[in-house]
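A note on notation is needed here, since sequence and fold are reported together in a single record. The reader may check this reading against the record printed directly beneath this paragraph.
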Amino acid sequence: MASKGQRFANYIIDLIAYSMLSFVLGMITANADPFADNVLLSYLFGAVTVMLYYFLLENFTGGKSIGKFVTNTRAVNIDNSRIDANKAIARSLIRIVPFEAFSYLGSSPTGWHDDWSKTKVIVDRDWQG
């Protein structure tokens, strides 16, 4: 399994990557931003951006995000098999649950998006897929 340090590095790297994506999308839509005055719609736009970022990457790269590429880790099913689109979307949806990022503060090296979707993150060298 990936260590808490690797998981934290994944989180920080991915946070930077999807923040940059959000910035670019914001720049593209700056003159036609229907969400500018609505905090709820702005939050929902951000949540959709995060979900798409993780879903598209983890679904089409075999469980990897940009952070996971950097740390040589990947999301897999509990039995170490490759995650499918359903698991990738589940992991992505769970990430927008409020306080999900704090689910790592306990003794377990997994978060809610791992536990609830029945997946885990492992080091690439431990994967036989």
Observations:
- Residues 94 and 116 are 8 Å apart (CA to CA).
- Residues 4-126 form one domain.
- The chain has one domain: 4-126.
